[in-house]
Design a protein that fits this description.
The N and C termini lie close together (8 Å). The chain has one domain. Helix content is 80%, strand content 0%. The protein contains twelve helices and no strands.
């Protein structure tokens, strides 16, 4: 990998890990998730549109080819977020972490099947090492009280999160391959984030008038901070996936593993989280997989 690829990989993964930190602080500061998420997507959409205003205006009349596709991914974005919230609430944090991270299996398999990515022995070793690293790094010891809800819901929600997260990553790769070009990238992201923001806005207005949930400045500010981070994390991810010669299966494996490493380090330094021997083994495997996949 060249210096530009490494930079895009590291920044995309770092910002993705920052998203988890911000969402953690949502809980600390009692941020309304729906309002914060809504202003997050509105902010990201605005940044995408105004970051390249003149070019976006020029491309505006030629956006029919990706309008519906961008709207669809945006709806998928916000749906997956709420699935993650429900999974954490009803099935526990452990199930949520594993389902979200292990979803990288879907874009990896899709890349091997659809794009014809080559599966050499060393890449196979790297991918399986990455999967093992993600699994070991996210397993935490939890009290049974956390997983107090039993039955079909525990199985259904993590499964939906697994599928949804995998579809999001796959759709981003397809967008980068078929739709996104240097002159329309920001306009595409405008539609993607904007559609998610519209859906979140409808839900927020419903809660405002029917559930009496007032809009608060702290929710708006938190959403803006999350939105800026969200926008740039996706920009750098798309740039990394568009790197010449990079196969999607390898790209997603490396990105997810780096997110795990950064998230773990942030958890240690910011929230004083402790690593079990299994978690430490997972981090070691994560570093090993990055070296193998980048070979």
């Amino acid at each position: 990998m060249n210096a530009e690829m490494i930079l895009n990989l590291v920044v995309a993964s770092f910002l993705s890990a920052i998203l988890y930190v911000i969402l953690k602080y949502f809980q600390v500061f009692k941020i309304n998730n729906l309002q914060g998420l809504t202003f997050n997507y509105m902010t990201a959409s605005s940044f995408a549109f105004f970051s390249n205003f003149e070019k976006n205006i020029d491309c505006f009349n030629h956006c029919e080819s990706f309008l519906i596709y961008g709207l669809g991914i945006g709806l998928l974005f916000i749906s997956v977020f709420y699935t993650a919230a429900l999974t954490a609430q009803h099935a526990g944090i452990t199930a949520t972490s594993i389902a979200g991270k292990m979803s990288m299996v879907i874009p990896i398999i899709f890349g091997l099947w659809y794009f014809g990515d080559q599966l050499t022995p060393i890449r196979t070793l790297g991918i399986f090492t990455a999967l093992a690293a993600v699994l070991l790094s996210t397993i935490k010891k939890k009290k049974m009280a956390e997983e107090e809800h039993h039955g079909k819901l525990i199985l259904l929600l993590p499964l939906l999160l697994f599928i949804g997260s995998g579809l999001v990553d796959t759709s981003i790769k397809l967008s980068e391959h078929y739709i996104i070009k240097p002159d329309n990238q920001d306009l595409f992201l405008t539609y993607l984030f904007g559609s998610a923001g519209i859906l979140g806005g409808i839900g927020s207005l419903y809660n405002r008038f029917y559930k009496k949930n007032k809009f608060e400045w702290k929710n708006i500010l938190a959403g803006i901070i999350l939105g800026i981070t969200n926008y740039y994390s996706l920009v750098f991810l798309i740039q990394f996936l568009a790197s010449p010669g990079l196969e999607s299966s390898i790209g997603f494996a490396m990105t997810n593993v780096l997110v795990v490493i950064f998230s773990t380090l942030m958890g240690i330094f910011l929230f004083k989280e402790k690593l079990s021997p299994m978690n430490q083994a997972g981090i070691a495997l994560a570093i090993s997989s990055i070296i193998i996949l980048g070979y």
